[in-house]
Amino acid sequence: MIVPSWVQSRLHRDFGGRFRVRWTGNRGGEFLVEQKLAPGQVLEPPTRVDGTYDTADDAYIQARDGYGFVFSIRPGTRMPCPVDGTTLQVPIQITRETVCPVCRKAGREGRYRAAYYPIDSEVWIDHLRFLDPLTGGVHRVRERVLADNAQRERSMTNDTLNEVDAANFDHFGQLFDIQSVGYTGKEHAWVR
To answer: Which residue, 120, 116, 17, is CA-closest to 72?
Structure first.
């Protein structure tokens, strides 16, 4: 696939050329958003068993060019599990956790952060702007994670309290030793 021409010019205009987008055929094909790194930040790419480099590997290409991986954009709303290749649903236009049921069943972690942003829209550029470390992205991400965790904690507490309330309402009479009497309807006196 070809990276749309407006993407590179937009990245150059908005971020001063610190980011690039590149298509890779690895992992079923995806666009890689990469950030230019200082020479001391570039990681050594992995080697094969015989000690040579796989020149088609994305980590090798990134190290050779002086870039680091930021995130990937898949052409659809599904991605293969990095461990076993199981097809996973990807959240749309929001980064969330996706879970591989096969990995979880096998006792592996199987949880991956993922999101789908259409390459043809500017939504992913807004997401990149949110993540940009030079403009406080690390702080923004940390704040969002803390807020999401606090919301999840409140939700779990509310669920627990709701279950306790439901149990109390169901067994209110028994809790306070209130006798229950059934209603049989209006009684009529029979006339003879």
So the answer is: 116
CA distance 43 to 120: 30
Cβ atoms of 100 and 80 within 8 Å: the answer is no
Residue with tokens 């003879």, as numbered in its chain: 192
What is d(CA 188, CA 130) in angstroms, rounded to the nearest whole number? 76
Do 69 and 58 meet the contact criterion of CB atoms below 8 Å apart? yes
Identity (one letter) of the amino acid at 172?
F
Q: Write down the domain spans for the chain.
A: 5-124, 136-170
- φ/ψ of residue 10, rounded to 5: -65, -40
Q: Tell me the C-alpha to C-alpha distance, in Å, between residue 165 and each of 5, 19, 162, 168, 175.
A: 59, 53, 5, 5, 13
Single pTM value for the model: 0.63
Q: What is the pLDDT of residues 26-57, one digit of tens each?
A: 766 788 888 998 888 887 887 888 888 888 88
pLDDT in tens, 72-123: 887 778 888 878 888 888 888 877 788 888 888 888 888 877 778 887 778 8
Distances, alpha carbon 182 to alpha carbons 167, 168, 169, 172, 192, in Å: 21, 20, 18, 16, 28
SS3 string, 113-156, reads: EECECCCCCCHHHHHHHHHCHHHCHHHHHHHHHHHHHHHHHHHH
